[in-house]
Amino acid sequence: MSVHRRLLPGVFVGSTAIAEGFLTRTQLRRRSYRRLAQGVYADPGLPFDHLLRCRGVALLLPLGAAIGGHSAAAWYGAPFAATNDQVTVVCPEEVRWRGPREAAVHHTVLQPSDVDLLDDVPVTTALRTAWDVSTLEPLTTAVAALDAMVAAKHLTTGDLAAMADRGAGRWGVTRVRRAVPLVDPRAESPQESRLRVLLALAGLAPVPQFEVVDDGGFVARVDLAFPDVRLAIEYEGGHHFVEDQIARDDERLERLRAAGWRVVRVSAADLRDLDALLRRIRAALAAG
Fold it and tell me: CA–CA separation, 194 vs 25, rounded Å?
């Protein structure tokens, strides 16, 4: 490893590194440093994910601004933002900063008490992050993030309810008050949360993470359940299609059927045709 690589761990601003003599423009261009944002680079050995991109954008933030919203939620148990998603930044209204193209900047009222320094990165507090996620993101995405934040014990449902009650007159309060009652920390994946919310909006109320028992013995825990009619709704992400997992899923499905349960299996493709999915679930409920 060269001396310059050793002196430039982690994330750095290229112009600063050059000005301080750690490397030349030619070395910056020719070496395999990863570009995170305009003028900001990272050691290629670091895991490339949304948090790393946040660290890069954070080096450019003006005083008073912070990583917020869906990006900040990663610090509080909801690392759902994709690597190449724009980094959400919240910025005081009086600070007219547009940011690099890798950032989505939202100018709003932001007090110093709304920001914590986490891992040397200014990040909105858990409660402020919950507010901004609720106001800036689609409802299903917002609830999925809030589910995970509560499950990780950075917030409680009581905290969220109090936040919504105190929000009278604030911009976005209607969206906050729509999201908060839908939060349920029993969800074990963002897609499960999204599916539950879509069903709730359609007037259906399945029980999350329901344990099926038969003759007093444990059979399986299902993502969503309608116990009265013994109907389970299972979301199947990509890992369900790995060879060993397919066999385990089939065995589990047979146990549920032997216990008198029916199962509706849902994939990402099904969520793209919600009307058809709802018809299938309603038909299964009616058949019960």
Answer: 46
